[in-house]
Amino acid sequence: MAIVTDKVGIVSCSGEDLPEGTISRIATRIVMEKLRPDDTVTICLPLFLAGSEDERAFAKVFPTIAVDGCDKKCAEVGTNKYSGKPVATVVVSEIMKKYPHLKVKSRDKLSAEEKELALKVAEEIATKVDEVLGRKK
Ligand code: SF4
């Protein structure tokens, strides 16, 4: 199986119960659509966990970054268990400690503060993507 070296796979947790899970999904979308669209691919975690060998080959083919809402690290654990060890993990609850003024509460419609936090998380993911690809932006 050929290893892809010019793209990074992003696997976000699918936490519906915590606002941090929502932030991880939105931040991943910002990276995919705006910050590093040409450098990233993704797979949704439930499909990944329920999927066939094809889906589970994902982290064997791409260097992978897990994006998790909290320290339970469901995306990291699931990716590691079913496919391959992620090269990096970004944890929203850890990043939040750097921005205590940004409060997160909602699980669907984001406030201005939540959007700002999602962008901060997206920027950290994009920095990891650059590191993994050996690029400076
Ligand atoms: S990492 Fe945390 S927020 Fe994400 S799915 Fe797991 S428990 Fe939920």
Q: Please, could you describe this protein's structure?
A:
- Helix content is 48%, strand content 12%.
- The protein has 137 residues and is an alpha/beta fold.
- It has one domain (8-128).
- The protein has a four-stranded parallel sheet, with helices on both faces.
- Helix 1 packs across helix 7.
- The protein is globular and about 45 Å long.
- The chain binds iron/sulfur cluster.
Strand element count? 4
Question: Could you say how many structural domains there are in total?
Answer: 1
Write out the distinct hetero groups bound to the structure: iron/sulfur cluster
Pairing-aware structural class of the strands and helices?
A: alpha/beta
Q: Characterize the largest beta sheet: strand count, sense, and whether it forms a barrel.
A: 4 strands, parallel
**Order of neighbouring strands in the sheet with most strands:** 2-1-3-4
Q: Beta-strand level of the residues, as a percent range? A: 5-15%
Query: Kindly, what is the distance between the CA atoms of the first and last residues, rounded to a whole number of angstroms?
Result: 30 Å
The averaged pLDDT comes out at 89
Unreliable segments of 5+ consecutive residues: none
Q: Helix and strand string, N-terminal first?
A: EHEHHHEHEHH
Draw up the topology in text.
Blueprint: E1 8-12, H1 19-35, E2 40-42, H2 45-50, H3 53-56, H4 58-61, E3 64-68, H5 74-82, E4 88-91, H6 92-96, H7 112-132
Helix pairs in contact: 1-7
Features:
4-stranded parallel sheet; 7 helices; globular
